[in-house]
């Protein structure tokens, strides 16, 4: 196994079939993301973008091929190690419903530190974890004093997404994965959100894999990838015609 | 993890509260039913001891037991005084307590009896009756009252009382021309004795002097001293409690009384009659127990449905937790902790409810039937029941937890709504 120091993510000969499906959802010969690189991933609905992210995050395992993330070959990891790997190295933002409704904004942001020693250590390097969480929330332009103790369900969708970014970034994981984090936002907030995300990803020194349907966002990324271009399995009938 | 589970419950408090309430009610119900069953039994068993035979007019054994000892229901017939004398004169008979029922005072039963009642009657573990204040009746118009009578009516020694004909709690006709006087108050026994007003058999006769065939004789009425000089030998009594010189003779004596020629009589062994009563009550008890078990089951099904129903809305919470590094085991644990907390909460609330019910119920039982139900810490049977419910609650929680575990693995990172 060759560790490539430039790549944070490297896929080779990847094949994935959902259990019960006849056709492969993903068949990727090669794909990689460099350190600190910001990659925009697009593709029609049902093309397997979320599936790919799940594979990189070691939530799913491929039937064939190899995935190396931050120098770790995922097939060498066992059950609990995968969860540990994920929280140690990856910060995640979903399309929506990123937050646990029963935890405060503060606790939601600090959640990864509960499960990862590594991120706890990084987050508490220069100050306490709470202060780091507050710093990130402020960096995300959130009115901290206003929202700190409010139930997360009272936040606007845009605010919730920014809290989710703060959580993804806490403890500076080397890779941030975002699955359509802007699809619930209007176009103005979308741009502002992206700017904040970029700034903090930059500060954290993380790479960013960003999935979106919205091709207009692609311009600000280092690289834009269309999943249909790299995925040999896309010409089957699994694709939906609407995107 | 416990903190997260707790806050998750608090977030869902309305459903959580309902689940806890359902379990609490089922726990309270089953504990209370169990307790009433056991206490009623022991209370009944405690009511009479040391009596070898109960004798009454021929009727059912259970009926005789109920009216003679527990003062529940009424006798249909009496025993004539000649029969009483005959039984008394049998060589095997050691002592005999006559009991004459049919009158009441302020809702409490009046028991006509002899002084033998206070020397030979035993309750509980062969305990004799004790006089707390005053003395046993000496005069025709003396009455010895039970502790509950004294407490509820506020009577002291020498309080004059008026006795009514009939046994309803509303006095029908009062024998107000022959006022009685409290001569003594008995110490509490926790049996129907506490609820009784005891007078001598002559006293019972005395209050009926001006009554013939149930109707009041017109006129001035007879004054107390005239009555005292009258021959007040009772014509009949309602029941007899008989003590034998030797227990070995009990079946022979029972047979002799049951085949008595002059009058149809019935003699029963208190233990045997109680057993018959239990057999009768046992059916109802079982039905009650089955109902309680069903209620517990319903409570658990409710808990499970609350957890399962929550599961769908929680799938995305699971996804978030998983993305933040929570292992499937954590997800499983989270739900198990929740169901445990809910079950334990239900059990504790149920215990509290049970004690409230018992406290209220014991007042009622004491007033109505003189049956004592004490507040006691849960005994071994109770603990077993609680343990079984706790385990069932955990199992009920495991199913949704397993479901969540499986789903959290299968969903990948896709958020499902
Ligand atoms: N849990 C699952 N079990 C079986 N098949 C699935 C599952 N999740 C997704 N798939 C299938 O895999 C394919 C890719 O799905 P995926 O969610 O990765 O698409 P996507 O590119 O993220 O789409 P979208 O842009 O709508 O989010 C689809 O055909 C879908 O039906
Ligand atoms: Mg998707």
Low-confidence stretches of chain B: none
Bound molecules: adenosine-5'-triphosphate, magnesium ion
N/C terminus separation of chain B? 24 Å
Instruction: List the total number of helices of chain A.
Output: 9
- What is the CATH topology assignment of chain A? Rossmann fold
- Percent strand of chain A equals 15-25%
Helix content of chain B: 40-55%
Number of domains of chain B: 2
Features:
heterodimer, A: 243 residues, alpha/beta, Rossmann fold, 5-stranded parallel β-sheet, 21% strand, B: 417 residues, 2 domains, 6-stranded mixed β-barrel, two-stranded antiparallel sheet, elongated, binds adenosine-5'-triphosphate, binds magnesium ion
Secondary-structure blueprint:
The complex is a heterodimer of chains A (243) and B (417).
Chain A lengths: L6 E10 L9 E9 L3 E5 L6 H8 L7 E6 L2 E2 L5 H11 E4 L11 H11 L1 H7 L5 H11 L4 H4 L9 H13 L5 E5 L7 H18 L2 E5 L11 E4 H4 L13
Parallel strand pairs in A: 3-8, 3-9, 6-7, 7-8
Antiparallel strand pairs in A: 1-2, 1-4, 4-5
Chain B lengths: L1 H10 L1 H35 L5 E5 L3 H10 L8 E2 H8 L4 E13 L2 E6 L2 H5 L1 E2 L3 E2 L2 E4 L7 E4 L1 H7 L6 E6 L7 E14 L9 E5 H7 L3 E2 L2 E2 L7 H6 L6 E2 L1 E6 L5 H9 L6 E4 L1 H54 L4 H42 L10 H31 L7
Parallel strand pairs in B: 4-11, 8-10
Antiparallel strand pairs in B: 1-15, 1-16, 2-14, 3-4, 3-9, 3-15, 5-6, 7-10, 8-11, 9-10, 12-13
Helix pairs in contact in B: 1-11, 2-10, 2-11, 2-12, 10-11, 10-12, 11-12
Bound molecules: adenosine-5'-triphosphate and magnesium ion.
């Amino acid at each position: 196994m060759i560790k490539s120091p430039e790549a944070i993510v490297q896929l080779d000969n990847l094949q994935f079939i959902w259990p019960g499906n006849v056709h492969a959802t993903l068949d990727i010969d090669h794909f990689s993301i460099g350190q600190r690189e910001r990659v925009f991933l697009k593709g029609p609905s049902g093309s397997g973008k979320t599936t790919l992210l799940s594979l990189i995050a070691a939530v799913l395992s491929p039937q064939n091929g190899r995935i190396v993330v931050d120098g770790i070959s995922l097939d060498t990891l066992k059950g609990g190690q995968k969860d540990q790997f994920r929280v140690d190295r990856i910060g995640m933002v979903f399309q929506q419903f990123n937050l646990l409704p029963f935890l405060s904004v503060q606790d939601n942001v600090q959640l990864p530190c509960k499960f990862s020693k590594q991120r706890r250590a990084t987050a508490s390097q220069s100050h306490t974890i709470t202060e780091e969480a507050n710093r990130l929330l402020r960096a995300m332009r959130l009115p901290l004093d206003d929202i700190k103790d409010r139930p997360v369900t009272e936040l606007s969708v845009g605010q919730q997404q920014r809290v989710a970014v703060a959580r993804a970034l806490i403890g500076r994981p080397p890779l941030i994965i975002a699955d359509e984090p802007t699809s619930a936002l209007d176009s103005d907030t979308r741009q502002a959100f992206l700017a904040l995300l970029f700034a903090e990803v930059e500060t954290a020194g993380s790479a960013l894999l960003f999935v979106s349907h919205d091709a207009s966002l692609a311009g600000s990324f280092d690289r834009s990838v269309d999943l249909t271009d790299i995925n040999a399995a896309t010409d089957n009938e699994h694709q939906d015609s609407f995107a | 993890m416990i903190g997260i589970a707790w806050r998750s419950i608090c977030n869902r408090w309305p459903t959580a509260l309902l689940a806890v309430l359902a379990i609490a009610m089922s726990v309270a119900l089953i504990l209370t039913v169990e307790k009433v069953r056991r206490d009623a039994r022991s209370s009944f068993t405690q009511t009479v001891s040391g009596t070898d035979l109960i004798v009454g007019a021929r009727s059912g054994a259970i009926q005789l037991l109920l009216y003679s000892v527990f003062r529940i229901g009424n006798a249909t017939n009496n025993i004539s005084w000649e029969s009483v004398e005959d039984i008394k004169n049998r060589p095997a008979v050691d002592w005999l307590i006559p009991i004459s029922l049919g009158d009441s005072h302020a809702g409490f039963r009046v028991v006509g009896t002899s002084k033998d009642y206070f020397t030979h009657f035993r309750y509980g573990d062969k305990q004799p009756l004790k006089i707390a204040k005053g003395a046993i009746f000496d005069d025709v118009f003396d009455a010895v009252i039970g502790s509950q009578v004294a407490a509820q009516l506020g009577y002291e020694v020498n309080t004059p009382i008026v006795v009514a004909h009939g046994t309803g709690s509303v006095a029908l006709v009062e024998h107000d021309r022959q006022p009685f006087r409290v001569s003594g108050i008995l110490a509490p026994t926790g049996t129907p004795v506490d609820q009784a007003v005891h007078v001598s058999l002559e006293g019972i006769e005395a209050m009926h002097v001006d009554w013939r065939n149930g109707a009041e004789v017109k006129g001035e009425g007879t004054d107390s001293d005239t009555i005292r000089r009258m021959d007040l030998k009772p014509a009949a009594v309602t029941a007899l409690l008989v003590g034998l010189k030797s227990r070995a003779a009990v079946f022979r004596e029972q047979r002799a009384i049951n085949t008595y020629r002059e009058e149809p009589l019935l003699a029963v062994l208190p233990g045997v009659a109680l057993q018959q009563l239990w057999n009768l009550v046992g059916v109802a008890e079982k039905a009650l127990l089955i109902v309680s078990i069903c209620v517990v089951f319903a409570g658990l099904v409710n808990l499970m449905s609350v957890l399962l129903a929550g599961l769908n809305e929680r799938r995305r919470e699971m996804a978030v937790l998983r993305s933040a590094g929570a292992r499937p085991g954590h997800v499983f644990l989270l739900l198990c902790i929740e169901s445990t907390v809910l079950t334990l909460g239900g059990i504790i609330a149920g215990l509290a409810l049970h004690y409230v019910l018992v406290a209220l119920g014991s007042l009622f039982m004491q007033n109505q039937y003189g049956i004592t139900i004490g507040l006691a810490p849960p005994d071994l049977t109770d603990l077993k029941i609680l343990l079984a419910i706790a385990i069932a609650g955990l199992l009920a929680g495991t199913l949704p937890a397993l479901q969540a575990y499986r789903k959290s693995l299968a969903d990948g990172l896709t958020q499902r709504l």
